[in-house]
């Protein structure tokens, strides 16, 4: 992939697909690691790893990892965190020159068992769920919307296709979402739940439409409404098919969805930036 353009593409679309980020040989080890800590009892059981070798020496970290501590666990964490130093990985991250972007806050893995049920609907993250009054609902919070997105890197350790475990994302939707947050925080519109895509499309068409035009172009707004309405009918146009070793980096303010792995178990590693 042409690295000189990925920063622009990521800013514009809110996601990029990075082919062959992890070599086949390393991917074997990723698979082995995910399987060795998964109890097999529940689906999407989340396993966290030390995100950085320095954290091995931080006693505050130990509580959350105490279940796994062993020499092998240290080795596995070291392997996972040092993959980011490999030439291929490093050059991708370096070409996305965001402040603080190079720092990983968390690495985890989970296995989604073969299933017919989509794990999530179309949604955005950090949006107060479906609360109608966040300040009241969360007791003591300001009710302000976060303006700092998390950049999430999903590394696929198994291949995913349409109707089989694909992650889906609506391009450009993070921009509308950021504008809605701005309007809410400045008091120009009243907060209404927009965690789910359906709610967001209705607000963009209706209650937030006039104010949004002060921050976005009509084309951007129409594009969101069209993509959003289309995605609610079918994921097909928005699935990001990947081979094992490919990765998806996305801005978590954009609307996204996980789909059921209908043919085989799906194994994903997530790096949070
Ligand atoms: Fe999400």
Give helix and strand order, one letter per element, not per position: HEHEHHHEHEEHHHHEEEE
User: What's the alpha carbon Rg, rounded to whole Å?
Assistant: 19 Å
- From the spread of the alpha carbons, the general shape counts as globular
Q: Name the average pLDDT.
A: 90
Number of domains: 1
**CATH second-level architecture:** Sandwich
Major sheet strand order? 1-7-4-9-3-2
Distance linking N and C termini = 21 Å
Topology:
Layout: H1 6-13, E1 15-18, H2 24-37, E2 47-49, H3 62-65, H4 71-82, H5 87-95, E3 106-112, H6 134-137, E4 151-156, E5 167-169, H7 173-185, H8 197-205, H9 209-212, H10 218-233, E6 239-240, E7 247-251, E8 256-258, E9 266-272
Antiparallel strand pairs: 1-7, 2-3, 3-9, 4-7, 4-9, 5-6, 5-8
Helix pairs in contact: 8-10
The chain binds fe (ii) ion (FE2).
Fe (ii) ion binds near residues 123, 125 and 256.
Describe the structure.
With 273 residues, the protein is of the alpha+beta class. It has one domain (3-272): Jelly Rolls. The protein is built from ten helices and nine strands. It has helices at residues 6-13, 24-37, 62-65, 71-82, 87-95, 134-137, 173-185, 197-205, 209-212, 218-233; strands spanning 15-18, 47-49, 106-112, 151-156, 167-169, 239-240, 247-251, 256-258, 266-272. The longest helix has 16 residues, at 218-233. The mean pLDDT is 90. Bound molecules: fe (ii) ion (FE2). Fe (ii) ion is lined by residues 123, 125, 256.
């Amino acid at each position: 992939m042409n690295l000189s353009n990925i920063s622009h593409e990521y800013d514009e679309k809110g996601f990029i697909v990075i082919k062959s980020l992890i070599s086949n040989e390393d991917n074997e080890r990723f698979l082995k690691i995910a399987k060795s800590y998964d109890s097999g009892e529940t689906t999407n059981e989340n396993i966290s790893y030390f995100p950085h070798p320095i954290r091995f020496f931080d006693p505050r970290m130990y509580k959350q990892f105490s279940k796994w501590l062993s020499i092998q666990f240290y080795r596995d964490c070291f392997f996972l965190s040092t993959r980011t130093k490999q030439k291929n990985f490093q050059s991708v991250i370096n070409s996305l020159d965001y402040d603080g972007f190079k720092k990983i806050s968390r690495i985890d893995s989970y296995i989604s068992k073969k299933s017919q049920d989509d794990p999530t609907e179309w949604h955005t993250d950090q949006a107060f769920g479906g609360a109608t009054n966040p300040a009241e609902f969360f007791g003591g919070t300001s009710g302000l919307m976060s303006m700092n997105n998390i950049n999430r890197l999903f590394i696929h350790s198994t291949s995913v296709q349409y109707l089989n475990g694909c992650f889906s994302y609506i391009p450009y939707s993070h921009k509308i979402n950021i504008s809605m947050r701005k309007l809410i925080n400045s008091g120009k519109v009243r907060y209404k739940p927009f965690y789910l895509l359906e709610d967001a499309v209705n607000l963009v068409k209706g209650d937030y439409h006039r104010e949004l035009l002060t921050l976005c172009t009509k084309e951007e707004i129409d594009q969101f409404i069209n993509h959003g309405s289309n995605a609610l009918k079918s994921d097909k146009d928005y699935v990001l098919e990947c081979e094992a070793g490919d990765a998806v980096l996305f801005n978590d303010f954009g609307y996204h969805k996980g789909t059921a792995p209908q043919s085989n178990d799906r194994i994903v590693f997530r790096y949070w930036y």
